[in-house]
Amino acid sequence: MSLLSKHVFLASTCLVATLTLASEALAREQIRIVGSSTVFPFSTRVAEQFGKTTKFKTPVVESTGTGGGIKLFCGGVGETHPDIANASRRIKESEVKTCAGNGITAITEVKIGFDGIAIANSKKSPRIKLNLRDIFLALAKEVPVNGKLTANPHKTWKEVNPELPATQIRVLGPPPTSGTRDAFVELAMEGGCKTFPEIAAIKDEKQFKAVCQTLREDGAYVEAGENDNLIVQKLSADISSIGVFGYSFLEQNLDNIQGSIVGGQEPTLENISSGKYPISRSLFVYIKNAHVGTVPGIKEFVDEFTSDRAWGEEGYLTDKGLIPLPASERSKYRQDAISMKKLEMK
Fold first, then answer.
1. Which of 20, 55, 68, 159 could form a disulfide with 64 if both were Cys (CB 3.0 to 4.6 A apart)?
2. Which are the contacts of 330, defined by CB distance < 8 A and separation ≥ 6?
């Protein structure tokens, strides 16, 4: 075969493969979204609205975790692979390379807002000041004692830190099925855990996460259900307890409860948006551009997600606890979404 014939053959093969992948994607008429459990309620809410108000089918949203979702997303192009990935952190450069190796060379990144987890108590009690180390030592199932991991012996906050009150440790928080719980253990618990060199040195990721993210089960942490409003109500009756819930519930109940100072920062909209408040993070969605125009409704779904009625300061996603981006950032990411701007890692 001549050199020219080889080039023609290779070009034809690539064209056939591309058309095949496109036709595979076209065979599916419903958007598939995977990823972060924290972003899950936001994507689900937009999907429900999208299904009710457009001609397109309601997208399928799966809670697989950020890492698992991006792995599925980067698996390839075509009907069997997701169209959009939710993420509670920015995609890693190594993940972008994996995507590229599987034929996904164009991804659009959209930062959708911020997530803030409040730690609060009744206004009838003194406001508490904590750092992430205090939170870990108070609530972890096992903590370092004389260099060895031991069942958590701390009964009062003063035993955790002499500067804290001598009240019993009793924290009302969400169950394992909650995205708020995920954010709390990842940001607060793991953040405090990393302050211990002997734990930070653990190489096995599963073991590290087991140590850092496992909450105690002896009554100090009380699973109070998925309803954050219920936790807020219980704090009014139990003034010695502390609650863990989304920032929006704190903001709506400031007459009765107060946010704890964490790492020297108050849980305010400004501090969460700027990243100063330590139990906060940016949230993202990633769009597979190769599926746009083949799987019906992707551009329209993204348009709904980035509309002021959804992610704006008074949008319906704020009712789900989303902290909106500043107006200038919303404008920037909406333009990126509309034009399906290709992600470039910096």
1. 68
2. 306, 308, 311, 312, 324
